[in-house]
Amino acid sequence: MSARSAAQRSPAVANEDGRASARQAAASVVDPEIRVITIDQLGILRAVEEDPASGRVTVTITPTYTGCPAMDVIRADIRRALTAAGHPDAEVRTVYSPPWSTDWISEGGRAKLAAAGIAPPAPVRTTGVVSLTLAVRCPQCGSPETEQVSRFGSTACKALWRCRSCSEPFDHLKAL
Amino acid sequence: MNGPFDFTLALADDALIAAQRLAEWTTRAPEMEEDIALANIALDQLGAARLLLSYAGELEGAGRDEDALAYLRDDREFRNALMVELPNDDFAVTMAKLFFLAAYQLPLYTALAGCADERLAAIGAKARKESAYHLDHGALWVKRLGDGTEESHRRMQAAVDQVWPYTHELFAADPAAPVDPATLRPAFDEVVGPVLTEATLTQPDSAWAPAGGRAGVHTEHLAYLLAEMQVLHRAHPGAKW
What we know:
Chain A is of the alpha/beta class. Chain A has helices at residues 11-27, 39-42, 71-84, 107-115, and strands at 45-50, 57-61, 90-94, 118-119, 146-150, 158-163, 169-173. The chains are: A alpha/beta, B mainly alpha.
């Protein structure tokens, strides 16, 4: 592609490039409350579409929790990232269905969380019952000897845990 | 109640008023973890309230958005059940209200998730996951206090006795609604009974069932709550920050 100017490209290829660049820009936005992970890795970025005629980009996101206070910042950050990538005409839509699940966090995202000292969530059980007895490994020392201090933590999506082996407190992203 | 608007508004007001009451605990809870927990639950309720209020405004079709419905109605226009407007009182009373509300909202939102109205179904599917955590948290405290010291047991039992009569209004029959609240009572009893037993508490056997909230006839407590909740918006209409 670098050898060809934009004028030489067929419209279809140009559209594809535009969509890919918009997608890349939106996907690079980090979560404002957990800044080690992008909104794409967190699974809240649902779609990025570009209207071929107008170049208008529509980004679809979904909140982790209904009352997530970070949504306004995320919308602003997406628009800023798209403008910087050459897509000033952008709309951010918010959808609530299907509801977000921690199962949508990517493998890369889980690794980033763990590296930042946040224990990633276990897979969600489908029985509809919230299980609180699953062992959560300490992100610092890896010990399964941990205990929950409080099921509600510094953000809506996290619980507060403590390691009985190394005594470190840590955040755990609750399975939802 | 008669239409989807009234039903949606009733659910929205339950969540909104519960959120406002829970938020009163912020900086005042007995321990820091609990302070954060109650604020988190309040935030969940507020999130559900905003979605429900926005949808109610659309159903009404009179141009009222979530803010107009939350900030510019007087107490007689609110449709929440009386239970959520009751004062927080001591911590045990707050936990009794939290536990009973979650034991009602979880089966309610679960049923909504499968109802024919797509918007309500989406809200239900989202909110029920959060309600499961609220229920767990309320049940944990009811057991901890009920099966705790002599004093904590006395106060938890008093709280259950005090709040119990107000639970009946939550299940008033409304066969025309997307989900008839009367159908949720068995699921509520199934959850509440065993928790009270484990907490060594006695389930009240009271026939007194105060009601009126769904028709806009409230206790004196709601107007004071609204005065605090609405003062800024009424003094500075359209204020944003």
